Amino acid sequence: AGEGSGTMPGDGTGSPAPERVLFPPTFSVSEIKNKQRRHFMFLRWKQQQRKEKLALKKKRKKEREALGDKAPPKAVPKTIENQRVYDETTVDPNDEEVAFDEATDEFAPYFNRQTVPKILITTSDRPRGRTVRFCEQLATVIPNSHVYYRRGLALKRIIPQCIARDFTDLIVINEDRKIPNGLVLSHLPDGPTAHFRMSSVRLRKEIKRKGKEPTEHVPEVILNNFTTRLGHSIGRMFAALFPHDPQFIGRQVATFHNQRDYIFFRFHRYIFKSEKKVGIQELGPRFTLKLRSLQKGTFDSKFGEYEWIHKRREMDTSRRKFHL
Amino acid sequence: QVLLSKNYEKALEEIDENLIYWPRFIRHKCKQRFTKITQYLIRIRKLTLKRQRKLVPLRRKIERRENRREEKALIAAQLDNAIEKELLERLKQDTYGDIYNFPIHAFDKALQQQDAESESESEAEREEDDDDEDVAKREFVEAEDSELSDFEDMDKLETSSEEEQEEEEEVEKKALHSKSKGKTPLKGPARRKRPHIEIEYEEETEPSTKTKAA
Fold first, then answer.
1. In which domain, by residue range, is B92 found?
2. Residue of B100, B181, B189 with shortest CB distance to A212
3. What ipTM, to 2 d.p.?
4. How far is CA A144 from CA A121, A140, A168, A169, A193, in A?
5. Residues of A with CB under 8 A from a CB of B
6. What is the pTM assigned to this prediction?
7. B87 and B125 share a domain?
């Protein structure tokens, strides 16, 4: 039986017309040894499944319309956020322990308005053009920040000098193959150090918009979705970068939005068109961060005390479990 | 095996002494090899004193997985909507104070309360409220910054409609005003000039027609 053509191959039992074939009840498509035939049968099976699904949907829709007002409410679709594994460290807004912790941790002086943030931005050795430009743009976004080149200086020696000169935060942007890919954010007078993996960095000219540059006004800060205890501390770290009193005249807002453990940073200018409508226009760089580790003291890779490290084997086991 | 001395020159001499009957070329090559070795040992010692760069290998599968998850998270995040919602929340909760003059919903609430009472009394009260609020607004407008010129226009609209003293026309005007803003979607400070001009046009025509009708 010539089976050169792939259009009408016979089935497993060998009868010429596939439509009139009777399969034994335990037959499955995967038992056909010939790949071409198997593929064909599989596609047919898939089409059948799709048809059935469509028919089912239509039937359900008709039933819904027929019932009219008495139809049961539409089921809420399951999303990853809905199905998220409940994290025990989720912060309850009224939790006293958390409030007490926050009143006495390293950011207390900032939140009590005793210190004004002053930030040092630097890179790893020998930064390439893209990283340099990114640093400059970041410096315009964050008020009261300075960019310094790192000419081979050791971080451990930079840190005491920074503390002496009254810096409150240190940002180091790590670069690899001419693109920035890592961020180390360290709160200086003995504060926690967070190490992030940075991805999809867009400089200002790559963002599609027709706006001007960010002005010198102090922007507002939006921190979205930092629910767990860890997320809360990271959120406070980000908040500590910006001065306390945003100048609403500038109408600028910096957003750190956490979604599924990815922190998206955006910088917008907003305008209230009416009471229920606001227009936003993106200016400034954008990037996304993923937390890799959080250390208690300042940057110290060998002897530091890690509060949290991302361990792939233990923490990435479930698709619905997030830590921030 | 002969252990050479630590001194570079002495070691070279020792090579010469030990390989005394070997051809000159081979002795030279030995000395060259020795020089190379000492130099790289020196370099190793120097480098270990400086900062070492630790190379962490990227795992291709993991990189791909993380990129894909990031894309999905971005889509799920709906950032623009989230930011707009948050800003509107802050507006409602009055964090911006008196900068933005949107007394509409406060106005509506007051109206709803007064609708519960009789209509004639409420109208009189509304007129008074109108006067009071718009006077206050006018005062505020003069003190405002030029950056918020859009809102100034809105105030001017409200003051002009106050002459009619009808709530419905105010609502219409506000709708028209928002429509006019909608025609040229606001693209930030750069494009503010165009909506500004359109609004002025609307203002000129509207009151004239109204006065004719009256």
1. 78-129
2. B189
3. 0.77
4. 11, 9, 11, 11, 20
5. 79-81, 125, 152, 154, 197, 199-200, 209-212, 220, 222, 224, 248-249, 251, 253, 255, 257, 259-262, 264, 266, 268-281, 288, 290, 312
6. 0.66
7. yes
